[in-house]
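STRUCTURE:
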């Protein structure tokens, strides 16, 4: 009986700690921005919204920190409806088949300039391990990484002159 009480107490404390570390994503203020060259001479900027998932970050307990977050692939917005429709098609993001872009962390660590998280990024049905350096200030996660679109089989029929190969991606996730 004593072992059952101890097990229950450990479970209760663990759940209470998990609840304390969990933050709620402010979907209206969170987005993923990207910039990629187009036509070999100009930059195309855009974003994804609809961020949802589990955000658990406490700088005092990085071992327990974890992220399991997705954005809505259909939300891609470059302020050009014709281009956005094409980006949603099977030529690029194939949003009917792959409706979300997701990141699930494996580790979070302290760095000289902030933090980093390493985990699985899934885009267009392809999962790759990435490391995202980030800062966390005023309840806002901000990270940046470079993504090679061809690694994720995005727009493979479009050469690197028409659409750049590498996109700079900035993640802004505000939590409550």
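SEQUENCE:
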């Amino acid at each position: 009986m004593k072992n059952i009480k101890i097990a229950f107490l450990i479970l209760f404390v663990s759940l209470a700690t998990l609840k304390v570390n969990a933050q709620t994503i402010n979907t209206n203020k969170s987005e993923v921005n990207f910039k990629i060259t187009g036509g070999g001479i100009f930059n195309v900027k855009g974003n994804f919204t609809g961020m949802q998932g589990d955000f658990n970050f406490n700088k005092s307990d990085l071992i327990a920190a974890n992220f399991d977050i997705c954005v809505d692939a259909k939300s891609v917005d470059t302020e050009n409806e014709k281009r956005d429709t094409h980006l949603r098609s099977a030529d690029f993001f194939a949003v009917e088949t792959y409706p979300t872009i997701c990141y699930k962390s494996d580790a979070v660590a302290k760095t000289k300039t902030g933090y980093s998280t390493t985990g699985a990024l899934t885009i267009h049905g392809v999962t790759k391990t990435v490391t995202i350096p980030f800062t966390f200030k005023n309840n806002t996660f901000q990270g940046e990484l470079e993504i090679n679109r061809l690694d994720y089989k995005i727009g493979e029929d479009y050469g690197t002159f028409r659409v750049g190969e590498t996109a700079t991606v900035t993640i802004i996730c505000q939590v409550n």
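REMARK: Strands lie at 22-23, 31-38, 42-48, 52-56, 66-72, 100-110, 115-123, 126-137, 140-148, 166-174.
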